[in-house]
Amino acid sequence: KNATIGVIRIPETVGKRKKNFIFGCYLTEHDIIFLEEENELYQCWNGMYEHLEEVENPFQYLLMMLEELVATDIYNLQKIEKKMNGFEEELLKEKELPFFDFFMKYRKCLSELHFYYEQMMDLGEGMQTECGRMGQEELVEAWRRFSVRMERFHDYVNYLREYVLQIHELYQSQKDAKQNRILNWLTIITTLFLPLTLVT
After folding, report:
1. Given the DSSP bridges, would you call strands 32-36 and 21-27 parallel, antiparallel or unpaired?
2. 146 in Cβ contact with 40 (< 8 Å)
3. Is the dihedral of CA 185, 95, 82, 109 positive or negative?
4. Which residues contact 25 (CB under 8 A, 6 or more apart)?
5. Mean pLDDT of all residues in 66-94
6. DSSP per residue, 84-139
7. Exposure winner among 15, 51, 107, 127, fewest CB in 10 A?
8. Using CB atoms within 10 A of its CB, is residue 53 exposed (0-12), middle (13-18) or buried (19+)?
9. How many Å apart are CA 89 and CA 30, to the nearest integer?
10. Widest CA span of the chain, in angstroms?
11. How far apart are CA 34 and CA 41, in angstroms?
């Protein structure tokens, strides 16, 4: 009853992961236990090993672990935006592109990221409450900074979701314009041949 237990799911769209990464966490005032089927947390732990001397309690350790896991998220979000920019430029050149594959892929990807960063924001706020209850003001501030960072990522993802919808509108307007041109040509051809039809 004195433990905080939770499961964190990191989507495959974050980082170089080829599939969803899920791990469990058991946290008390004195201990922290991670449960995972893969070896990713262990590799992450090796990456932050030299900083472990600074850790004073499990809440700080969890924070360091999460910060290590999200360290490259901003670059990965920028890569997504760059790919979307490239697709939009190709679309403006009126090239034939697999639009619906693109649209469904990125809509799903950004939807998962939206809920992921919401989860991280909730986690950060919950940890602020726990650390405040223990009188750890420095940790409260550290978790607050983490929450703000996750909120910025969340806002960035929302911007990208709107961008995808704008690309969809661009595609639809191009498709409508193409159909209008075809109808105009059909109208001209019909007008030209109508007198001949009447004479016949």
Report:
1. antiparallel
2. no
3. positive
4. 4, 5, 6, 7, 8, 32, 33, 34, 35, 62
5. 86
6. HHHHHHHHHTT----HHHHHHHHHHHHHHHHHHHHHHHHHHHHHHHHHHHTT-HHH
7. 51
8. exposed
9. 54
10. 97
11. 8
Cα(112)–Cα(12) distance, rounded to whole angstroms?
A: 9
Other C-beta atoms within 10 Å of 78: how many? 11
pTM (2 d.p.): 0.79
Could you tell me how many residues make up the chain? 200
Residues 132, 183: Cα–Cα separation, whole Å: 68
Instruction: Give the tokens for residue 196.
Output: 């001949």
Pair 48, 68: CB distance under 8 Å: yes
SS (HEC) of 3-45: CEEEEEEECCCCCCCCCCEEEEEEECCCCEEEEECCCHHHHHH
The whole-angstrom separation of Cα 43 and Cα 129 is: 29
Half-sphere exposure of 163 (CA within 13 A, CB side): 20
Spatial CB neighbours of 67, under 8 Å, sequence gap ≥ 6 = 146
Q: What is the pLDDT of residue 170?
A: 80
